[in-house]
Amino acid sequence: MKSCFGALLGCSLLLLCGLIAFGQESSGTMTSTIVVRDGMERIPRFVAGMPYSAETEAEGQQTGTDGTRFDRKMTRTKTYRDSQGRTRMEHYMPTGLSNSDKPTLLNVTIEDPVAGKMYFLNPREHTAREKALHVPHAEENGGATRIQTRTVMRTDQPQPKITVEDLGTQVIDGLVVEGKKTTMTIPANAQGNDKPFDIVTERWFSKELETYILIKNSDPRSAEHTIKTTITSRAEPDPALFQVPADYTITEK
After folding, report:
1. Domains held by the chain: number
2. What is the residue range of 198's domain?
3. Is 252 a domain residue?
4. Please, are residues 56 and 74 in contact by the beta-carbon 8 Å criterion?
5. Could you tell me the pTM of the whole model?
6. Is 251 within a domain?
């Protein structure tokens, strides 16, 4: 059970950073908010004129062999975006097994397209790494950067089949969102499986705010997980949130 939730935690982190985030660092490079393939929506890297504050939680659900259901809050992210398109993301992790335990702030990412800078803050050491920030022009993929994600499999193995279904629209917390369901069918013998199995993902997207509000994923190899974003405010965030605190030491990389 513990190992399954460890795998789920990794998936949740990946989705939080890749699907909902405005930018994150990976292996010394900067990845941008994605353009999802298979008909999914394009999310601009920087969005001006639509400020908000939000909290995103990733929860895992797993059922034991005896039917016992386990629910765990895996990760939490607080996001702020101002009218200039600047963003701040605070990444938290739970400190214990109980869902009531207060999460721990791990790190903070600030992207400032106005100043052309990006900062990675370490709250424990009060340090910040500064990097130059590339702001795409309008002609560069419509202001977005394309990231293709795919399952890498050997060419001599059966290949997965991907289907996309339009789920229409619904209202979540007052926002009209558009949904799509992606089903990836893994054929028998592709990954040591004796029967085909499906990995199903639902994504609900707000065009008004240019972000995902709800993501659900079901994978029989691990557990089900849900990533829910709640908009806590549509007002302009405090400008201080997009500045490195005065008591932090800034280094360049």
Report:
1. 1
2. 2-246
3. no
4. no
5. 0.71
6. no
Does residue 246 surpass a pLDDT of 90? yes
Q: Within 10 Å of residue 221's Cβ, how many Cβ atoms?
A: 11
What are the start-end ranges of the H helices in the chain?
2-15
Q: 179-236 pLDDT, tens per residue? A: 999 999 999 888 888 899 999 999 999 999 999 999 999 998 877 889 999 999 999 9
Question: Would you call 9 helix, strand, or coil by DSSP?
Answer: helix
pLDDT digits (tens, 9 = 90+) for 96-118: 655 566 788 999 999 999 999 99
d(CA 241, CA 78): 11
Ramachandran category for residue 210: left, alpha or beta (phi over 0 → left; psi -120 to 50 → alpha): left
C-beta of residue 4 within 8 angstroms of C-beta of residue 222: yes
Quick check: 33 and 43 in contact, CB under 8 A?
A: yes
Buried b (16+ CB within 10 A) or exposed e, 181-207: ebbbebbeebeeeeeebebbbbbbbbe
Joined together, the tokens standing for residue 202 give 């639902």
Is 124 within a domain?
yes
